[in-house]
Amino acid sequence: MESGGSASGSVRGAGREKKKGKNTDEPSVAAVAGEPGGSGGGKPRKFNLKRVMADELERFTSMRIKKEKEKPNTTYRNSSTSYSDISGSGQTLQDISDEDVLVLFEQMLVDMNLNEEKQQPLREKDINIKREMVSQYLHTSKAGMSQKESSKSPIMYIQELKSGVKDAQLLGCLESLRVSLNNNPVSWVQNFGAEGLNCLLDILKGLHDEKDEFSGSYDYRIEHEIIRCLKAFMNNKFGIKTMLETDDGILLLAKAVDPKVPTMMIDAIKLLSALCILPQPVDMHEQVLGALTERAEMDEVERFKPIVDGLKSGTSVALKVACLQLINALIIPSDELDFRVHIRSELMRSGLQHILKELHAQDNEELKLQLQVFEEYGEEDSAELRGRLEDIRIEMDDFNEIFQILLNTVKDSKAEQHFLSILQHFLLIRNDYEARPQYFKLIDECISQIVLFRNGADPDFKRKHFDFNVEALIDNLIDQTKVAKSEAKTLELEKKLESELTARHELQVEMKKKESDFEEKIQNLLQEKETVAAEKQRITSEKQNLQINSSLLSDEIALLTKELEDLKKKMEHVISSTAFPSPTGTESHQPPSSLYSQTVSPPPALP
């Protein structure tokens, strides 16, 4: 496929050109904003990516990474040491050579986090003025350091992050770290350095790994605070360079693009947008796109789904603006027409096509500006595609050659059968001298509108309905009565389809309800079964206990019966032995009634 480089230069104009012959930093503010004072003196672009970004990103992206041809400064940690050496030893700047003053002056500019636009006028000052500026800065820095002696140093933050603190303690540490990163000079950030950045990224990675298992009440708050710390850390050249040198820093930012946490998603998207438009290293937008792709593969979703979800109704306007900023930042920096059309088409297929109308209804200037940028760049791409078509018409006018190219293009692919079907349909065109040209004219217009879609993207292939703008041709070529009948039939079929879909949905709901009822009944039966089994076990246990008690009672009854028999025998023996003769010698006296009563008393009642 063509790269579109030559056509791009003619159609898109200066807006698509690569920056050539420029210094290591970006153009001045006037040039970036498209003001008359910009470089080149030519007509400014209608839109500039930097101009449509938020003020926050303006400051962020004004920090550049120097190219290798620039004069390297001394190491960051040594630069802060040189300041302390001068102030600590009591040595005055009057005793220092001009060369050393210039070195300190450059260190001062770096520590003040000034962009190239503000640094250049200061570099043009006289050496005496520079000496005085360095002296004042040293004095101010010394006073500021004395006020902050009680605050935490970068090493203390690093040690605390490595200590494994959790939840509220970790959140408090991160909030304090963010304030320090924002309020301290660049030298403080340099001392925090790659070691501190890796601590933040390790914690962030751990939070992402734990999300699949469980999420604590502090996890999202901690994750958002880390993103805010990264935002403060990257607000200078050193921070950007250090972040880009990490293995998975951009990927972790891409994982933070989560519509469930819109405030965190806004900060993460702003960082990714700013990275996309960095001039160095080149093609940063492709690295960001690669991170979004890798994250989507892990989650098994479309790579632009989180961004499109952030644009749907129900989300905040700020999130919508940020998502559109990222979309523009991914598409616009590329010099390849095919790449831009591909990304724009993928976004449309992911659902952006159906959301644009809702976004236009929003009454917000920033949102409208981002939409305008997106659509006008799309129209420019569409114009460039049309320019390609004109080139094809001029350069390729041989029927056999064009047919052979098309055949080779679709051969042994899924498109081959469709191409054959198109040719077969051409054979069905009525062989009429007047009608045949009209058929081909209408087909030509339809194909042109399909392949040269007006917004610079592929059509939405998921839709069964495609809007053609061929009313003028239809008025001359087709009978209006047939059109009305076709529309009525189409409307009827659409109603039937809608009715069938509604009935299907109702049946699905009813089926789910019955499934739920069956599952509930099964659960109840299982519970009843468990209850019966437990009751059966209890009765069996009671039966065993009763049998044991019955056996014990039988033994006790037998024992008592035996004792009763023995007692009766003893009583009979006592009665017979105590009998004596009467005075007449014929009768014997009865034993005392009390003794007799004892012999006939019943045994004690059985328990």
UniProtKB/TrEMBL annotation:
InterPro entries: ARM-like (IPR011989), ARM-type_fold (IPR016024), DIA_GBD_sf (IPR044933), FH3_dom (IPR010472), Formin_Homology_Diaphanous_sf (IPR051412), GBD/FH3_dom (IPR014768), GTPase-bd (IPR010473)
An MF annotation (GO) of this entry: small GTPase binding
GBD/FH3 domain residues: 93-458
Polar residues bias: start-end ranges: 577-600
One GO BP annotation of this record: actin filament polymerization
Region (Disordered): 1-49, 64-91, 577-607
Keyword terms of this UniProt record: Coiled coil
Pfam families documented for this protein: Drf_FH3, Drf_GBD
Low complexity compositional bias, start-end: 1-13, 73-89
Keyword Ribonucleoprotein: no
UniProt feature coiled coil, ranges: 474-577
Gene3D superfamilies, sorted: Formin, diaphanous GTPase-binding domain, Formin, FH3 diaphanous domain, Leucine-rich Repeat Variant
Gene Ontology cellular-component terms listed: actin filament
Family: Belongs to the formin homology family. Diaphanous subfamily.
The protein's name: GBD/FH3 domain-containing protein
Native organism taxonomy: Eukaryota, Metazoa, Chordata, Craniata, Vertebrata
